[in-house]
Amino acid sequence: MFAATTYAARRHALAQQVGSGLILLLGNTDSPMNYADNIYPFRQDSSFLYCFGLDLPGLAGLIDIDADRVTLFGNDGDLDSIVWTGPLASLAEQGQAVAVSHTQPLAQLEAVLAQARTAGRAIHYLPPYRAEQRLWLSELLGQPVGALDAGVSEPLTQAMIALRSIKSAEEIAQMENALEVAARMHTLALRASKPGVREQEVVGLMSGLAQSQGRQLAYPIIFSRDGHVLHNHGHGYTLQAGDLVVNDAGAESPLHYASDITRTIPVGGRFDERQRVVYQAVLDAQLAAIAAMQPGISYREVHDHAARVLVAGVAPLALFKASAEEVVHSGAYALLFPHGLGHHIGLDVHDMEALGEDRVGYGEGVVRSQDFGRRSLRLGKPLRAGNVVTVEPGAYFIPALIERWEAEDKFRGLINYASFKACQEFGGIRIEDDVLVTAEGARVLGTPIAKTVAEVEALGV
């Protein structure tokens, strides 16, 4: 954990922004896979972690803003639980570790909240996202499950987003710790991706490396020669020379801060000429986006800038019939680049999106576009110093999308469908790094991971 004073300061800042009432933050509980004692690996709620830092199930925190009092609710282990889990710190000891001096048994939380409701006090809570959490919250508040969303506290949600969006130096250190493991995972994968190797073997090597360091994966690994399927979690293909493999993999730090890195691997160690053109266009788009990032610029502007560089870079393939400016302005570029440039990253790989994607990524005069491609941009609003975001442009040849757009006669004057169809067995390319917005611009976090053509080919032979 961070120092106890860190969590105290975060709770104080949260209370100051919300103003009055009670702030209820529920930790996560164990979740069964197929029966009660066979559980999924535990992952604590990230907002609870941010404010209380305790990585154990069955806890809740209550911040009484008006009384300036914080209470940790939970249970001490009994003899039966100790037999199975071993000794655990008492609830009081857990509270002391995060600067909370008041603790109560978990069973008393419902009565405390009922008393507050009777007194007409506001109870602020965040959007629930797990079924177990929704049921627990329903019981605690005496509200039907279906009524919970309407009662979500907008002041608390916006305050949590504002605080978690700006990363401290100690948070950046955690993210770079996670990136060190991710760098090793990606280098291992690049060297292991040889003709005749099954995708699952490489995924297993990366997963095992993370586990050997005591880390959880930040998300299920995407490792596929079908890189045009953006979130492809199938790993059944045997690699062949000439394949391109999109490898999107990251690990968590000891305190659960995420890394999210993508590299594209030429199986056999060399890009062919067409692959080289597209790869360099994607890389140039990523580098241009990072160079453009600074406080105050909207991430939607950065997205469009990256798209223009990408479209200009693939000019040798004659995919489009007009200037990059016209192609991007029209939206025709999304046939090649159908997703957003990136998202916040921190305690969640898509940081804070449980609080509402539009709340996190939009506002401040920026409204989500409904255009294909831009509507998938998770972050559009102006950047601020202290934000950490992913920068992940890509180029994909998606046969079903090409066929659909051609049948609908979309952008006929801008898109050369014959050239797209000539590439429909290509697959996809994505390059992604985690980037800190600074007062002066931006800095790529972590140990550099091979991404130029020369660097990738040197490691892949």
From TrEMBL:
Family: Belongs to the peptidase M24B family.
Residues annotated as transmembrane: none
BP terms from Gene Ontology: proteolysis
Short name of one Pfam family: Peptidase_M24
Molecular-function GO terms, alphabetical: manganese ion binding; metalloaminopeptidase activity
InterPro entries: Aminopep_P_N, Creatin/AminoP/Spt16_N, Creatinase/aminopeptidase-like, Pept_M24, Peptidase_M24B_aminopep-P_CS, X-Pro_dipept-like
Record EC number: 3.4.11.9
PANTHER family: XAA-PRO AMINOPEPTIDASE 3
Name under which the protein is recorded: Xaa-Pro aminopeptidase
Entry keywords, A to Z: Aminopeptidase, Hydrolase, Manganese, Metal-binding, Metalloprotease, Protease
Catalytic reaction(s) noted: Release of any N-terminal amino acid, including proline, that is linked to proline, even from a dipeptide or tripeptide
Domain Aminopeptidase P N-terminal: 2-134
Lineage, uppermost ranks: Bacteria, Pseudomonadati, Pseudomonadota, Betaproteobacteria, Neisseriales
GO cellular component: cytosol
Named cofactor requirement(s): Mn(2+)
Top-level EC class: hydrolase
